């Protein structure tokens, strides 16, 4: 009797451990990684006051975070990358929602830590997010459409890079480098003297926006904040669709098939000669 009870207790322990490793730990990894990302990148904007140096900080931070937490959660730390992997059928919707809230809360905590760590006069560099010093000039000179496009274009490049490199087993080992360098290049080439740098990550805008809401001039903070969500989301949608229709391997690719008819045999009969590689790059059976 005691042996059976011990077996039941041991079985419960294994179940609890698997739930923690498959459900809880990935969410905690996204939460902690988001704290580190937002706090390091925003602190870098304050300490360096240089867009080129901060672009390097941003890219290398993502590299070591992906290497550190990638096997636990996937290493997203970005709501729009989470959206991209959901559209690519890698993440389930419930898992993506949990990641989203973990990232949002982590971004707020990271920005709050930065605000608590520096004197008030230094915070203009992160008032509206990652390295966005020229916030007021941007409202007067550049249109909201221009800002959204400046966020959508580099986000498209980033998300497409992430999807192609991480979901192909042959390229996966290089994905941290590819993602980090794409962030550095996009951050540096998307810089504008009137609006600062692009973020490609709404956390780097939303976290500081919440953390600095108590300032006297914080009302202007939210007037065009939505563009930092719409722009990256549009870029992510385009990148995800392009990946699913063109670059995806195996079952993740959406293929447009011609309808079967009596005069022409169906593709499923094995008469179609084009062979499509699976998600691991191996050539398999005939697939339309």
UniProtKB/TrEMBL annotation:
Keywords: Membrane, Transmembrane, Transmembrane helix, Transport. GO terms for cellular component: plasma membrane. The keyword Lipid metabolism does not apply. It is found in: Membrane. InterPro entries: Aquaporin-like (IPR023271), Aquaporin_transptr (IPR034294), MIP (IPR000425). GO terms for molecular function: water channel activity. It is a multi-pass membrane protein. The chain crosses the membrane at residues 27-48, 55-73, 93-114, 173-191, 226-249. The keyword Oxidoreductase does not apply. Pfam families: MIP. Belongs to the MIP/aquaporin (TC 1.A.8) family. PANTHER family: AQUAPORIN, AQUAPORIN TRANSPORTER. This is Aquaporin 8. It comes from Magallana hongkongensis.
């Amino acid at each position: 009797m005691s042996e059976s009870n011990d077996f039941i207790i041991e079985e419960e322990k294994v179940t609890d451990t698997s739930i923690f490793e498959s459900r809880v730990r990935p969410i905690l990894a996204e939460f902690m990684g988001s704290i580190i990302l937002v706090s390091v990148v925003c602190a870098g904007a304050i300490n360096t006051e240089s867009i080129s140096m901060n672009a390097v900080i941003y890219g290398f931070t993502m590299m070591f975070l992906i290497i550190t937490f990638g096997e636990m959660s996937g290493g997203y730390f970005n709501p729009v990358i989470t959206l991209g992997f959901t559209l690519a059928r890698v993440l389930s919707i419930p898992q993506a929602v949990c990641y989203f809230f973990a990232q949002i809360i982590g971004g707020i905590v990271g920005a709050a830590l930065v605000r608590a760590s520096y004197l008030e006069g230094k915070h203009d560099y992160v008032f509206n997010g990652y390295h966005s010093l020229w916030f007021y000039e941007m409202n007067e000179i550049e249109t909201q459409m221009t800002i959204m496009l400046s966020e959508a274009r580099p986000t498209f490049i980033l998300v497409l890079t992430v999807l192609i490199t991480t979901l192909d087993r042959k390229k996966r080992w290089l994905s941290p480098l590819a993602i980090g360098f794409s962030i550095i290049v996009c951050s540096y080439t998307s810089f504008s003297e009137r609006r600062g740098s692009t973020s490609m990550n709404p956390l780097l805008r939303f976290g500081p926006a919440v953390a600095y809401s108590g300032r006297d001039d914080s009302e202007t903070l939210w007037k065009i904040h939505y563009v930092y969500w719409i722009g990256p989301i549009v870029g992510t949608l385009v990148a995800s669709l392009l990946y699913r229709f063109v670059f995806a391997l195996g079952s993740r690719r959406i293929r447009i098939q011609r309808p079967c008819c009596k005069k022409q045999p169906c593709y499923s009969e094995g008469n179609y000669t084009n062979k499509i590689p699976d998600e691991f790059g191996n050539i398999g059976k005939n697939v339309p």
